[in-house]
Design brief:
Layout (H helix, E strand, L loop, with lengths): L1 H17 L1 H10 L7 H12 L4 E4 L6 H11 L4 E5 L6 H5 E6 L4 E6 L6 E5 L6 H13 L1 E4 L2 E4 L5 E6 L12 H4 L4 E4 L5 H12 L13 H13 L4 H15 L13 E3 L3 H17 L7 H12 L4 E2 L1 H5 L4 H11 L4
Parallel strand pairs: 1-8, 1-9, 2-5, 5-8
Antiparallel strand pairs: 3-4, 6-7, 10-11
Helix pairs in contact: 3-11, 9-11, 10-11, 11-12, 12-14
């Protein structure tokens, strides 16, 4: 036991030093992004935990600015793909084109070949295009003709959805939404923040330039360290209880939720909740996970993984309501 606590102390020290760049990143991003700390924090969790992020929010909330700034701060390549109903898979991943001089077909790479991809309004494109992007997210590789290309790491997809307009959109199927580690719902800034935004945008001097703080290779090292973050068995059981309560609520004295849940979280939910909790602990500069880390990240990991029945929709019950009930009922270690 003595030995274990010594190991955890050592690990804690190591992670405290290695995670210093998180504060520097936040400071750098704060130069151009007003408010939206929650969104930026979730983007970093996705990056450190090797997941992708689905963002839901009305237009004009600095979604593009955030990922573009993050990309500059990490010195990575950034690509923005505007999803439209006439988009083709080749427009995303690339295609074979005929080279007349060489008299042969050559590969032309698409915008997916970057470290940071902003898939803007992903629900505007047809299923073929969505699945081309999701294959790249899952496999971290692209096949064009007979050639297979590995995507550069780190690779983070930030897909956005506009919750207002549903006309002419193609809703992402449940199985595809499950590929996103986090679904983050963002709201409007406060009055004070919005005043700062107005000032920043009306400033005759353009806003400050983002400087590279770290390199992509440093993010890869940080990812390895995130996996090393210590997670006690009690925390593992806590994560499993939360996920299992979405599948079998009656086992957790939550019979009233049974008719409201169409399906619960998949094993991917448990993996992602554990990984995101480790990344959250790393960002808080700790070498071990506490229950609070799991609770903080739970809604973002689980909200798109709890299916609602018609009965729940008729009663205006959201997945957040269900998750709140579960977090209140499941015993905290």
């Amino acid at each position: 036991m003595e030995n274990t606590s010594y190991d955890i102390r050592q690990l804690n020290e190591k992670i405290h030093q290695a995670s210093a760049f998180v504060d520097l990143l936040n400071l750098e991003l704060g130069k151009v992004i007003v408010g939206q700390r929650y969104m930026v924090e979730r983007l970093l969790i996705g990056l450190l935990a090797q997941g992708h992020v689905l963002l839901e929010g009305v237009p004009g909330l600095a979604k593009t600015l955030s990922i573009k700034s993050l990309s500059s701060a990490i010195n990575g390549k950034f690509s923005r793909i505007q999803f439209t109903p006439d988009l083709l898979p080749a427009d995303v991943i690339g295609t074979m084109i005929y080279n007349q001089q060489k008299n042969e077909f050559v590969v032309r790479r698409g915008p997916i070949f970057a470290n940071f991809i902003l898939a803007d309004e992903i629900n505007r494109a047809p299923a073929k295009v969505q699945s081309a992007l999701l294959e790249a997210m899952q496999e971290k590789q692209i096949t064009i003709g007979d050639n297979t290309f590995k995507l550069e790491e780190p690779f983070l997809v930030l897909a956005t959805q506009n919750p207002i307009e549903q006309e002419g959109t193609y809703t992402l199927p449940e199985a595809q939404v499950d590929r996103f580690m986090l679904k983050v719902v963002i709201g409007y800034p406060t009055k004070e923040e919005e005043r700062m935004i107005i000032r920043q945008n009306l400033n005759p001097q353009p806003s400050q330039k983002i400087n590279p703080i770290i390199q992509p290779a440093d993010i890869m090292k940080a990812r390895d360290l995130v996996r090393e973050v210590y997670m006690d068995e009690k925390i593992e059981r806590y994560i499993l209880d939360i996920v299992f309560a979405t599948r079998n609520p009656e086992e957790y004295k939550l019979q009233k939720l049974k008719p409201l849940i169409a399906y619960g979280g998949s094993p991917r939910a448990s993996i992602n909740l554990a990984m995101a909790a480790k990344a959250y602990a790393f960002m808080k500069r700790r070498g071990y996970v506490i229950p609070e880390d799991v609770r903080s990240i739970c809604f973002d990991v689980m909200r798109h993984r709890v299916g609602l029945t018609y009965e729940a929709e008729a009663e205006n019950v959201t997945s957040e309501n269900i998750l709140s009930e579960i977090l209140n009922a499941v015993e905290v270690p």
